[in-house]
Amino acid sequence: MSEILSVENLSLSYGPLQAVRQVSLTARAGEVVGIVGESGCGKSSLASALIGLPPEGARLSGAVRISGADLLAMPEEGRRRLRGDRIAMIFQDPMSAFNPVLTLGAQLIDFQHRSALSRRARQAKAEAMLARVGLPDPGLAMQRCLHELSGGMRQRAAIAAALLVSPELLIADEPTTALDVTMEAQIIHLLRGLRDEYHGAIVIITHHLGVVGELCDRVYVLYAGEVVEEGTADEIYHNPRHPYTEALIACDPAHLAPGSVIRLPVIAGRLPDMTRPPEGCAFAPRCARAESRCHLQPPPRVQVSDSQAALCHRVAP
Ligand SMILES: Nc1ncnc2c1ncn2[C@@H]1O[C@H](COP(=O)(O)OP(=O)(O)OP(=O)(O)O)[C@@H](O)[C@H]1O
């Protein structure tokens, strides 16, 4: 499988605040890769760096390669072209992909402006894609403005818009958080169906480990801006080795028997102050298994299988 996305030692900081620290990851053609972590661990900052659009004032280092081309090393014009041609993004707020006062049809046709197809063919392709993502009566939906569509329909339209340009890399940043549970299940089902026919790489960024377990091939667990564990979805979900991954799983609603809890458990403690990251393991202050070396020395990256690795003093190879 060819590597579509290759990230090497990527760091992003806002002044003294280190939001993303030395992240390395890959996504190959046909693969769905999940990046999971709780709020504030650096997911959005990482997502912005993956598309070469960091927030103003952020400082970036490292490499983000899209099919070999280093996004961070090229001038803005090159990045813009790459984003338009080869990378598409699905945001939590589907409205951010659209102009609210233009019809959906006009926008879906315009998104294909680089295509050699006629206007009529682009229209037909847009309608077919809307049907594919489950919009009832796509012909009618094409004539509607976005504010006339329901939240679920907008999210489906945003997915259709992203796929219309056949991107090599599709990045979904918290694609389901804004939706209710039933709709979330439908969207997951849809993305799962699409992965079999879409041959690019899909990267899904979420705080919800259940999404990752159901949808992804491989998972990276992010804590305090670092990848603390990586592995296949099966390894991460059923045989987590990092205490933070274990804690995330214990908090996941999918692991709780229906009706058994009133409030979701949360991981006790809070993220460290990232303007002064701890000298040892960043998770040690919240870790029930921490020993003194965990507080003093940076943890080693321990390879536990061909595909699984954890950043932890307590994990045996
Ligand atoms: N534009 C910014 N300027 C300064 N600090 C920022 C900026 N954006 C994010 N941060 C800080 O960087 C850290 C990581 O934030 P980020 O939004 O990337 O995390 P996240 O995991 O996406 O969180 P959430 O799920 O709540 O969006 C946080 O401490 C946050 O306060």
From TrEMBL:
Q: What is its main location?
A: membrane
Keywords (alphabetical) are: ATP-binding, Cell membrane, Membrane, Nucleotide-binding, Transport
This entry's Gene Ontology molecular function terms read: ATP binding
Mind telling me which PANTHER family this protein's record contains? DIPEPTIDE TRANSPORT ATP-BINDING PROTEIN DPPD (PTHR43297:SF2), OLIGOPEPTIDE TRANSPORT ATP-BINDING PROTEIN APPD (PTHR43297)
- What is the membrane topology listed in the Swiss-Prot or TrEMBL record? Peripheral membrane protein
Q: Where is the ABC transporter domain?
A: 5-249
Q: Which InterPro entries match?
A: AAA+_ATPase, ABC_Ni/Peptide_Import, ABC_transporter-like_ATP-bd, ABC_transporter-like_CS, Oligopep_ABC_C, P-loop_NTPase
List the Pfam families: ABC_tran, oligo_HPY
Family according to the record: Belongs to the ABC transporter superfamily.
Where in the cell does this protein reside? Cell inner membrane
Reading the lineage from the top rank, the first entry is Bacteria
Kindly provide the name given to this protein in its UniProt entry.
Answer: ABC transporter ATP-binding protein
